TrEMBL record:
Protein name: Chaperonin 10-like protein
InterPro entries: ADH-like_N (IPR013154), GroES-like_sf (IPR011032), NAD(P)-bd_dom_sf (IPR036291), Trans-enoyl_RdTase-like (IPR047122)
Gene3D superfamilies found in the cross-reference section: Medium-chain alcohol dehydrogenases, catalytic domain (3.90.180.10), NAD(P)-binding Rossmann-like Domain (3.40.50.720)
Any Pfam family hit: ADH_N
MF-aspect GO terms: oxidoreductase activity, acting on NAD(P)H
């Protein structure tokens, strides 16, 4: 329900047009909802897909799916949050409350209590809390994490380590290899080095010859940057999970991006390779994750130091619009490396 007091939001008004500030009505929280004053937001590749590619955009479309802020109003029936709590949130677009606005009114289960910003990308069926002495039955199965220095890759790696996976080769630029080893990478390969890719291919082939199915998590989903090299080196019968959307053409200043959801037909996989597209925005489809992921699991993973948040790069700018536009420009220039872009809604 609208209270008619407007607040500012950062919006896409047309694909590849400069962002604009628009006024949005405040919403009164209904049962199970809270209103949060947004202090910080993270800018992710999804913002660029929306700003330049029109992905899930209905102009004027406010941007953003991650936020940190303070609860300022609460509806009936909210148990784990109260007014004044500092919270972080991961906001699937289906709720139509994107983060890059001064206030969001959302179901309380989308929020957790912690002061750190995170881009949660958990898609696991592993038990939480982890039972004592838990070891997965397939602990030594090879899981290649392609693009491990990405935000999603860093979290995936740390969770695999926590749950006891012991055969986790990764690709990333060389400068991130040491950090990624501390997060659980068992072998590191530079995806820009043909020699490294050759070594990785040999490793995967030997795993497959030893009768182990190779599993791959492609955190990049770029036809040229990850899927074509993966199609060349992934042995027959492997399973490849790709983070949607598949990027056929990258956004450039003068080039519109192109996406597809087709993970199987877009490159020539070897015989019997199965692919699947992954969407973190639909995590609420699983009742347990819907209930527990943000309120319980994420704060616990952070508090116990099981996962370390991404390094952050603060995007500065004199106005809200300057900061929002700069973040999009940095993403478009593909300057993000092992870090999450974050910026303030209000200048300090
Ligand atoms: N479907 C979903 O629910 C969902 C959720 C989150 C993300 N995504 C998608 O997943 C992708 C990654 O998202 P993110 O937020 O994790 O990205 P990010 O952190 O912004 O990604 C930047 C990283 O990508 C790495 N990278 C770029 N090109 C690469 C390549 N060809 N091979 C290997 N690594 C490469 C860079 O590695 P170096 O610095 O090591 O060079 C850099 O650290 C995006 O396309 C995003 O849209 C989808």
């Amino acid at each position: 329900m609208s209270t008619n007091t407007p607040h500012a939001g950062v919006a896409v008004v047309a694909a590849r047009a400069p962002l604009e500030i628009i006024q949005v009505p405040d919403l009164k929280p209904a049962e199970g909802q809270v209103c949060v004053e947004v202090h910080w937001v993270g800018s992710t590749p999804f913002d660029l897909h929306q700003a330049d590619g029109g992905l899930r955009v209905e102009p004027p479309q406010i941007l953003g799916d991650t936020a940190v802020g303070v609860v300022v109003k609460s509806g009936e029936g909210v148990e784990h949050l109260k007014i004044g709590d500092q919270v972080f949130g991961f906001l699937p677009p289906v709720h139509k409350q994107p983060s890059q606005q001064e206030f969001i009114t959302v179901p309380a289960h989308l929020l957790g209590k912690h002061t750190l910003t995170t881009s949660a990308c958990l898609n696991f069926t592993l038990p939480f809390p982890k039972p004592e002495k838990y070891t997965p039955s397939d602990a030594n199965t090879p899981i290649l994490v392609w693009g491990a220095s990405s935000s999603v890759g860093q979290y995936t790696l740390q969770l695999l380590k926590y749950y006891g996976y012991t055969n986790v080769p990764v690709t990333a630029s060389k400068r991130h290899h040491q950090l990624l080893r501390s997060f659980g990478a068992t072998e590191t390969f530079d995806y820009t080095s043909p020699e490294d890719i050759h070594r990785l291919e040999a490793l995967l082939a030997s795993e497959s010859q030893n009768g182990r199915r190779v599993n791959v998590l492609d955190n990049i989903g770029s036809v040229q940057g990850s899927m074509e090299p993966l199609a060349r080196i992934t042995p027959p019968g492997s399973l490849v999970a790709v983070l949607w959307p598949v990027i056929k053409v990258h956004a450039e200043e003068d080039i519109a991006p192109e996406f597809t959801l087709d993970t199987q037909g877009v490159v020539n996989w070897k015989e019997g390779v199965k692919t699947v597209g992954v969407s973190t925005h639909s995590y609420e489809a699983n009742e347990l994750r819907k209930r527990d992921l943000q309120p319980l699991i994420m704060p616990e993973l952070l508090a116990q130091g099981i996962i370390t948040p991404n390094a952050t790069r603060i995007v500065e700018g004199a106005t809200l619009l300057d900061r929002a536009q700069s973040a999009i420009d940095i993403l478009r220039r593909r300057e993000v490396s092992g870090e999450r872009l974050v910026w303030r809604m209000k200048q300090a």
